[in-house]
Amino acid sequence: MTNEWCGWREATERALYGPDEGFYTRPGGPGPAGHFRTSVHASPLYAGAVATLLCRVDAALGHPGELALVDVGAGRGELLTGVLAALPGEVAARLRPYAVERAARPEGLDARIDWLRELPAPGSVTGLLFANEWLDNVPVEVVETDPDGVPRRVLVRADGTERLGEPVDGADAEWLRRWWVPPARDAVGGTAPSPGLRAEIGRPRDEAWAQAVGTLRAGLAVAADYAHERGDRPPFGTLTGFRDGREVPPVPDGSCDITAHVALDACAGPSAERLTQRAALHALGVDGRRPPLALAATDPSGYVRALSAAGAAAELTDPAGLGGFGWLLEPVGTACAGLLR
Predict the structure, then answer these.
(1) How far is 321 from 278, CA to CA, in rounded Å?
(2) How far apart are CA 336 and CA 31, in angstroms?
(3) What ranges in 140-182 are assigned the alpha helix state H?
(4) Which among 73, 175, 254, 312 would be 20 to 30 A from 187, CA to CA?
(5) Span of 94-108, 228-242, 305-319 with lowest mean pLDDT
């Protein structure tokens, strides 16, 4: 890893996806599951919910002869594997599953899954595109206001040392003004931003999401991720790292994941719908309510299984945890609008 100064976007790209040395692309690495717990890894109920959503998309599209499921940021293929196991046979027989992932194809993956390093061609697939915790790993620039309240790019070296660079300008400055307005000074009616405030400029994520949605000829695109809204942006940003299941300082040397929450409202197109994961999973039948105690007397084994499922569902829908994630649903065409209402 070079230790020269550069912006966080360049440093993160190299640290996560650099050939042979990137956190995600390093040969023989454990993949995301080795370092943090996503909804996919928390419970098979999540893959079951995606399978339910895929069936709704299939019905809305009139049961096309070939139905696509595009998993963007596929990790080691865990979500696709779970969905294939949960689908009715008739739907699975027509399914064309795509895993989009920059790491190499894992050994032993279901042969039905097409493994791609890049998104399918624009307008080439019909069905469901699902991106679980993908956008938070699309690298972005980090900015910080200087003592005069001027937003400047944060430069970083591979060891994590930072310094302020040039003022933000151009399209990044426009994105910042529109989507991440910092709070004003408290002093005597001042209007300049306070010094030391930080933000992540989400423009690359907006562009990445638009490209992902554009792969669909017809269907539904869904992004599920850590998210925040324009009226409630964190004043010091959200950039952080993860390693071995623990949150760590974000050092761009390839030793840890580097992630930041997503401004899903900036990504959203005009026909998009946004809701929490809790609301989305409830609409797809994932319910954390305990089974009736009477079941324990009539079917003890069934009660234990139902209790376990309720616990897993509660974790996935906990508003203070995974249930607080944002879901962005973007239909392509009119058939797949409102499938979670």
Answers:
(1) 10
(2) 32
(3) 170-179
(4) 175
(5) 305-319
